[in-house]
Design a protein that fits this description.
With 168 residues, the chain is mainly alpha-helical. The chain has 3 domains: 52 residues, Winged helix-like DNA-binding domain superfamily/Winged helix DNA-binding domain (Arc Repressor Mutant, subunit A); 43 residues; 62 residues. It has 9 helices and no strands. The protein is elongated and about 75 Å long. The relative contact order is 0.09.
């Protein structure tokens, strides 16, 4: 590998990193799709890591914070990071929740409030309609990676309270 080629790969990586965050895996894939070979990519990645311009732990923390702010739960966060070949423990994710002073219980409640802002729930609604609304909400919450039992409990509480707060 020539010095010029090495510089070209390095500059391409810096250009990519200047636009957005990358994990080692994502940056390697991007460089590979640009036609660089494994040796060139590995050398560039090593150099970026030495200069602390590329760090999977820091990248994971930023991604987790972003996912939490979007209302995603631990399961979906872990799944999304696995797709990027980043392994994190549930405890690591919990620590970031704590650092952000967010708990999953409150996060699910907020998601319910946001999703149900325009749902009309009253005693005139048939039991089938209420059941369908509950199931739709439950699917939404679990698709965000939250614990099924917690979602079920909070959905039930929400609909029970909504019924009592909207008398005929």
């Amino acid at each position: 590998m020539t010095k010029e080629r090495k510089t070209t790969v390095y500059n391409k990586a810096l250009n990519l990193l200047s636009r957005q965050d990358y994990s080692i895996y994502k940056l390697s894939s991007k460089l590979k799709s640009s036609g660089y070979d494994h040796e060139e990519i590995a050398s560039t990645i090593d150099r970026l890591q030495e200069l602390k311009l590329l760090n999977d732990d820091e990248y994971a923390k930023r991604r987790i914070k972003s996912y939490i702010q979007r209302g995603q739960g631990i399961k979906l966060i872990s799944l999304n990071l696995e797709k990027e070949e980043i392994q994190v423990s549930e405890q690591f994710v919990q620590e970031i929740y704590q650092a952000l002073q967010i708990d999953t219980y409150q996060q699910v409640q907020d998601l319910i409030k946001n999703k149900c802002r325009y749902m009309k729930i009253c005693t005139e609604t048939s039991q089938d309609d209420i059941y369908n609304q509950q199931q739709k909400l439950l699917r939404h919450l679990t698709s965000k990676g939250h614990d099924f039992d917690l979602c079920q409990q909070l959905t039930h509480e929400y609909f029970t309270n909504a019924k009592h707060n909207h008398p005929e």
